[in-house]
Amino acid sequence: MSPPLLGVEEQGQSDVSSPPVECISQNDLGLKERNYLGLSDCSSVNISGVSSFPEGNSNNLNLKATELRLGLPGSQSPERDADLCLLKSGKPDEKPLFPLLPSKDGICSSSQKGVVSGYKRGFSDTMDGLSPVKGSLYTEKDWMFCGAGSESQPVGHGNSGVNVMSARSSGVQASVKKDGPVNAQATNVTNLKQTGNSNLNISAPAAKAQVVGWPPIRPFRTKTLASSSKISDEVDGKPGPGALFVKVSMNGAPYLRKVDLRTYSTYRELSSALGKMFSCFTLGPCGSHGASGTEISSESKWKDLSHGSEYVLTYEDKDGDWMLVGDVPWEMFIETCKRLKIMKSTDANGLAPRATEKSKIDQ
Amino acid sequence: MQKKRAYSFPDEVLEHVFSFIQSGKDRNAVSMVCKSWYEIERWCRRKVFIGNCYAVSPKMVIKRFPEVRSIELKGKPHFADFNLVPDGWGGYVLPWIVEMAGAYPWLEEIRLKRMVVTDESLELIAKSFKNFKVLVLFSCEGFSTDGLAAIAAGCKNLRELDLRESDVDDLSGHWLTHFPETCTSLVSLNISCLGSDEVSFSALERLVGRCPNLRSLRLNRAVSLDKIANILCLAPQLVDFGTGNYTTELQPDVLSNLTAAFSSCKELKSLSGFWDVVPAYLPALYPVCSRLTSLNLSYATIHSPEIIKLVSHCPSLQRLLVLDYIEDSGLEALASSCKDLQELRVFPSDPFGVEPNVSLTEKGLVSVSLGCPKLQSVLYFCRQMTNAALVTIAQNCPNFTRFRLCIIEPKTADYLTGEPLDVGFGAIVEHCKDLRRLSLSGLLTDRVFEYIGTYAKKLEMLSVAFAGDSDLGLHHVLSGCESLRKLEIRDCPFGDKAILANAAKLETMRSLWMSSCTVSFGACKLLGQKMHRLNVEVIDETEPPCSRLESCPVDKLYVYRSISGPRSDMPPFVWTMDEEGDNNSNQKDFFFLDMFVRNNHYISNSL
Asked: Is the CB of residue A99 less than 8 Å away from at least one CB of chain B?
């Protein structure tokens, strides 16, 4: 574990003795007036453990920037912003709220566990438990990637700070295609972009990755715009607008979930994400919580369940018919899918026979 | 001996006097004067507004106000509109309906915003309140047209059914047939959010035909243009009309019929709808344009020249909602035609595109601010902004009450100077002394928050995203904004210090939302432990916050004041911080699942 973090924790606890009701301070320094250009001593405002942040690391930060390691899932989101500010404004005095781990090798899942950031949490756990589907592209760079974002967390909800809409090119990769593995790699680049810092030396993306809930437009409006543009033929091959939220239901689950179909590019990703989302309903409320060990088992239990044909994924298409998921090409599927339902396979027998036949054959 | 008797009126007199006091705030003030006024007032309060359904329990409300006829409840935090609040978080109305069914048999009005409403709730409403008149479901979800059928059939005196922007499971248009032939009381019907392609149009026509008091009718997209003329002829008394889709095959009669139909509507002041507009049919609106005060073209994919033509016929316009197809040129035309304009909302037509697809910049907003002296409320999506423009706007419009600017790319600087937009927004808060609502965007440092804390004394709601440098920013807002009620923040480097230092402030506010910030789990626990009248909810869908270090930032934090303590309907991914540490009793229980399966049977039945 990284010592500065421990320092933070201890200091925080020791200073909280008997705080007055109106003002609970974690330390006695309170908030000083500061020069708003940010050139003053930041330590009074930052969490105290950081005040010993060594100057030398600012050089590391610059190096790290060019190595495209900043702002990655599993690293700290506040620091990401602070780092980026630092790079942008060239003010070495600005200290991030959380210290960077000094070596990139240090960013491995177990040590990261304690330092997971705002909107990229959970990936370290995923990395622990799952063998990376996108394998070799990532091991050399030692990243926590959120290409597995669709696998490791319920998509479309605020926790996933990054929902990759489409692939982007970057300075690192020459070309990025819009399918599974490369998507994930691109995502790391998009994480950096997420923070909106345009001063990093990454070449302009071909298309934008999407931040959840931004721009702040209601789903009703996005849906309407999407179908309007189809009607007036204004979409000319560019990536579809906005998110494509569909409801997912499962008998016995206490509430519906909504997923954004555009964040997946294959059936496998979708099925994986849904498995995680609903495993807590099939396996009991504790299924999706806890240490990574449990996550492996719940994911694999889900897979067992679906391969063992206990549950199947079905969807309602534009004509109102219920079909088994998986028959049509992905692109066609997302165009026609209105909603999803996880059914017991026994209930799914009434579905389009051709589809059922096909799935039997596949198994 | 002149005792207090000489100065006290009989209760009935006071009650009569109080009946002239309608505003909730004033009534609250009245009830604080003395014990007897408290008592009298509570017995005669007819209308209750509860801004956060978890701030108080239904039983408490009923106990204090036994004779309520009208209730308004709000559930989820505002950011739920942008998918930041996970499904299942809460905001269920059923417990309220259950309690009120017993206690308020004469309840007439229910208005809900961002709540989960089930068919069961709707059925219970239809069954329990004999004199039920008004149902407004604003941005709600969880129900289907089956529930609406129950309302239609059961509420004999229904006056208002308004489903604005709700997410309804639209199973079929047949629910409209459930309005009995004897129903003639409708004054307002808004079904614009219904998604299905079927609408029982004949039932709709018959309903409209027999309701002579119908003033407001908003149709959904399924209703095509050729049907509108009929409807308008049946209801020429309409004041507010929402079209369905504004398209049909070009036929000779349609335009003339439509024009005649609109001409017959002498009271029409407000128009909306306009999905899929065929511009050739817009001239049908000209007969009503001179009287129009409100026009919502925000779904109309028509371009600047057509918009300009239409808008230049509307000199009385007070409220315009439009897509950015209007462009700077259109806004200039607006500024010269519509001198009474009070509210402007410009939405992006291509919010996720990288490059701008239209020529809409800060200049458009500047023109409007210059040409429309009565402008009070602005919602503006654009891709570029300058401090100079904002300063000009602020100087032109010191009467702003709501200013929401969304520069689409986060952290966009002033494109001329490269500076943060602190000074621009600073000018807004400095000049607009009555500003109640503000949304920030663009590149912003702690400085803008200093301005806000210094000047925005009447500010009630602030929305912040991708802004600020440190806790000091948040501290400025919490310590300076005296009227602050709702604060929602996402993706800002604000952490523990500001929150803990201003913990008491949070009790004076309705709620605080922070997501993807740097508030640590330890601080949340501390806040929950020390502030007993706050519910401190930590939301995390991937893993329990207690499985990590206390110094780790929480994913989402929602803090709100409450006198009913932590709620008991939390899903597994929400934890309340209270005296016992983090608490989610529902994580362990299958009881939780049972409770919701019962309450939400629509989920399994309707699919």
From this structure: no
